Amino acid sequence: MQSRELLTTLSEQAAYRGQIAHREWLHPQSARYGSLEPPPPARLREALAELGITRLYSHQAQAFEAARRGEHVGVLTATASGKTLCYQLPLLEAALADPRARGLLLFPTKALAQDQLRKLEALLRAAPLLRAGIYDGDTPQAERAGLRASANLLLSNPDMLHVGVLPNHQRWARFFANLRYVVIDEAHVYRGVFGSNVALLLRRLRRLCDEYGSRPQFICCSATIANPQEHLQTLIGAPVTLVDDDGAPRGSREFVFWNPPPIHRQAAAGEQQQVPQAGEKHKSDGATRRSTNAETTALFSTLVRAGIKTLTFTRARKIAELMLRYVQDALAKEAPELVGRVASYRAGYLPAQRRKIEQALADDELLGVISTNALELGVDIGGLDAVLLNGYPGTVASTWQQVGRAGRSGGHSLAVLVALEDPIDQFYMRHPEQFFGRSHEHARVNLENPYILADHLRCAAYEKPLSRDDERYFGAELAVLVNELSAEGLLRLRQGRAYAPIASYPAEEVNIRSSSSQQFELIDVSQGGKLIERVDAARALYELHPGAVYLHQGEEYLVTDLDLAQQRASARPASVSYYTQPRDVTDIQVLERLRERPLGPTSICFANVDVTRTIVGYRRKAHYSEIMLGAYELDLPPQSFATQAVFLTLPRPICQRVLTACGDLPGALHALEHAMIGMLPIFALCDRWDIGGVSTALHPDTGQATIFIYDGIPGGVGITELGYEQLEAWLGSTLHLLAECPCESGCPSCVHSPKCGNGNQPLDKGGAQLLAELILGNQAT
Predict the structure, then answer these.
(1) pLDDT (tens digit, 9 = 90+) per residue, 453-492?
(2) Which CATH number fits domain 450-509: 1.10.3470, 1.10.10, 3.40.50, 2.40.50?
(3) Domain made up of 33-243: CATH architecture
(4) CATH C-level class of 3-25+250-269+280-437
(5) Which pTM does this prediction carry?
(6) In b/e form, how buried is each residue of 245-284, taking b as 16+ CB within 10 angstroms?
(7) Is beta strand 132-134 parallel, antiparallel or unpaired with respect to 153-156?
């Protein structure tokens, strides 16, 4: 069934209430080719011909030529455009010319490395004496020495490079001495905490290569972002030649924006939900749109029943598990033979479980998978016909990356974005032209984050004692941080050099994917203490608090106890009709003002701040309807961290105008804070969960009404700094959102936040709109 026919069928069903907000037809693109002089070696051309490749796309040829010139290369083309050949061909040509030459290929996931090895082995038939292998945490100990000694091409991930290779570089002396190329695949994922860690990790790699006398070239492959050259150069610490002339063919695609219909108010159990007439405003008492999860479940079930191979993406692990249950329940009633042909996929599953799901999808044993962004990257999972997005993925870049998983064979595909009651989702539902015409977001890393940098200085000192010469890798703050680490006993100073303490192994203590290196264990008390899963310490209090419902592989567990000292939570299997959401309160203190400038009648500032968050309780919300079933108190210790924030201070005349007009200054400030948080991901490569906010009618550190938006990561990773730089455009988009949202007094599409610790009270949408207008000068002050 073609997408047009399917959408027509859906629009004729009784449950259809005008959900199709927009249909965009994306036309196919013909291939454009390039040529190479001299051509690749004959053996390599023969291997390509066996795979059906007789010509290179234009971007493949350009990347190969830049690599031959000795340049660092960044390839920025669409999903399924053949970026793999952009690094495979230079690597193989170098190894054929000099069998001593080595290549290191880094992938963000083990699954991607396994997939790329399969593709690489097809080309290695041209050079049977060359050896490629995977070196990661799953590699048997018996095979590791052989790979170190003889592998020409080594596939790994940043985690293994960090904890297993660089600290043991003496064993890798020959490899580092002959390292010719380093491949950074899916470079756009290296942003925020992970990206900041990887950027410093690559500086540690270059530092050791200098020691062994090699100067490897970097070849980076990335999805489209707004600042590719800046980002890639920051990542590797060297100039990059950008290749973005995408010559690959593309099949046609229909992209549908699907908006769950509004409802007047939260219907009671068994009560018929009312749908407003065209042009009628909806109110904000309770949920205002039909559940996105329920809408996506219905679409997914329909596609699977129609035999359309479908991948659904959702932004949260819990939602992936919930939706699998919903889909299985629906299929059990309508097509029970298909229940076993759907699955969920996310981080946290054991490697064997993930490989089994990937293979089943590639072999057509599965018709549908519900995944977090764990399947967003380029693992080959066979031809897909459709992709559903359960809510906007958070960035334009991720949206196109996820949508690109369908139609990989060049055929027609369907993409459907099912909107959340979220400011950006609803903004794009009303303005699809903004999505299809908008440039991608900026990616940011922070090489000066003192927490992240200090961790890598400890690791670098273990690998080779630090000296002032290492400022060229780690920056001017090296000496200050080394002295601080020495005072804490984490480094030893001797004759102007810094050493790691004897018997230490700092890489084991540093988690490069998280702001926290600690993890909590979730234990099943009904199975004699069997380990269910490990959870990052930064998330533990939010997901493992007493009373929390935790989902693992579709099974529900009720958390009964949380032991902070032992970093362990106890849980038992449960079958409940609800899920849980934590509630927290936040305080903020200004530590140091870094930059400040006027904005209309107000002042905006970028600063170092201290944030204290306390989990004070949780809510139970019903499956499907999402009705709140109850609120419960918790007594947990506060968590504090230093980070960066942008804040606006509002002078008394503006506050008086708002107070006179709406009578609720705290509600106006709170609503504008929520709306700004919701819109910042349009400009920065992040989502609203990476940032937080605080607003107050009188803050003790500013002496004025103040709105804070802060990085949710200790030390900050550049998100709010970008917000400071683009605050006029950011606030303008926020005002546009407030003015156009059809609700009367605020709703989840504009000012309600799903993570508000105050239960979205107080909020004044009209006051927030007036505030934004006054700040931007749209009204006379």
Answers:
(1) 999 999 999 999 999 999 999 999 999 999 999 999 999 9
(2) 1.10.10
(3) 3-Layer(aba) Sandwich (3.40)
(4) alpha beta
(5) 0.79
(6) ebbbebbebbbbbbbbbbbbeeeeeeeebeeeeeeeebbb
(7) parallel
